[in-house]
Amino acid sequence: MRLAVLASGYGSNLQAIIDAIEREEIAGQVQVVISDVEDAYALERAKKHGIENLYINPREYKDREAFDRVIVALLLERQIELVVLAGFMRLLSPFFVRKFRGKIINIHPSLLPAFPGLNGVQKALSYGVRVSGVTVHFVDEGLDTGPIILQDSVPVLDDDTEHTLHERIHRVEHRLYPRAIQLFIEQKLRLEGRRCIHIEG
Ligand code: GRF
Fold first, then answer.
1. pTM
2. Are 179 and 151 in contact (CB under 8 A)?
3. Spatial separation of the C-alpha atoms in residues 11 and 44, rounded to whole Å
4. Among residues 168, 173, 162, 159, which one has the least CA distance to residue 126?
5. Residue of the CA atom closest to atom 9 of ligand 1
6. How far is the C-alpha of 134 from the C-alpha of 150, rounded, in Å?
7. Which residue owns the Cα nearest ligand 1 atom 14?
8. Which of 39, 86, 94, 157 is most deeply buried (CB count within 10 A of its CB)?
9. Which pairing describes strands 29-35 and 52-55: parallel, antiparallel, or unpaired?
10. What does the alpha-carbon distance between residue 104 and residue 137 come to, in Å, rounded to a whole number?
11. Domain extent listing, the chain
């Protein structure tokens, strides 16, 4: 399957996906990595693995949709079948979601629907939950509101800082995201309203 990864930052989830592909745990290839941040380390990671990597400057476009139209065109040109958001810090426009409906997934560092949006780890920590976690979900027009594919929990420890908790969450993300991608590739996910049913076998 032809994958595209959109990332704004460090790209550790991108790396986990690339590694899982190399171990043949994902039956797909990352065709392109696209970033809205020029010096995102995710672009470096793509480069190192010989993957096409593109920086698109949002400031060159008049609004979110104009920016998204450029990305959608790039994805269509490359016949992308699954768009993987991995730390992509922008809300997709309804135009983008419509064009790839059911083919965009995201990873979020909390147990949704708790703590959506920016700084999910910090929000969970400040709220005082004893258990947080990771959610992989389909992307719809809302902010972290799409049907949930996989979740896993992560305990919050008394001496956690945002950094230590996020580190533990990252380790779970790196395991969960490749699994979710492979479930999608194997067509083992079926939507029943909001519920994402996992087909056995
Ligand atoms: C992850 O924690 C992910 O859940 C969130 O942004 C972070 C990206 O980390 N959406 P990385 O760039 O993949 O290391």
1. 0.98
2. no
3. 9
4. 162
5. 87
6. 8
7. 12
8. 86
9. parallel
10. 9
11. 2-198
pLDDT for 74: 98
Dihedral sign from CA coordinates of 105, 111, 114, 117: negative
* Ligand 1 centroid from CA 62, angstroms: 27
For the domain covering 2-198, report its CATH number. 3.40.50.170
Q: Which residues line ligand 1 at a C-beta cut-off of 6 Å? A: 7, 9-13, 86-87, 107-109, 170, 173
How does the average pLDDT of the chain come out, rounded? 98
Residues of the chain with pLDDT under 50: none
pLDDT value, residue 39: 98
Residue of 49, 108, 170, 198 marked catalytic: 108
Tokens 């949709």 sit on residue: 65
The predicted structure's pLDDT at residue 201: 76
CA distance 183 to 177: 10
Q: Residue 108 catalytic?
A: yes
**CA–CA distance, 90 with 191 (Å, rounded to integer):** 25
| Model pLDDT for residues 40-55, shown as the tens digit of each residue | 999 999 999 999 999 9
- Side by side, which strands form the sheet with 104-108? 52-55, 29-35, 2-6, 82-85, 104-108, 131-138, 148-155
* Cβ-based neighbours of 44, under 8 Å, separated by 6 or more: 11
Cα–chain-centroid distance for residue 77? Answer: 21
Residue whose Cα lies nearest atom 8 of ligand 1: it is 87
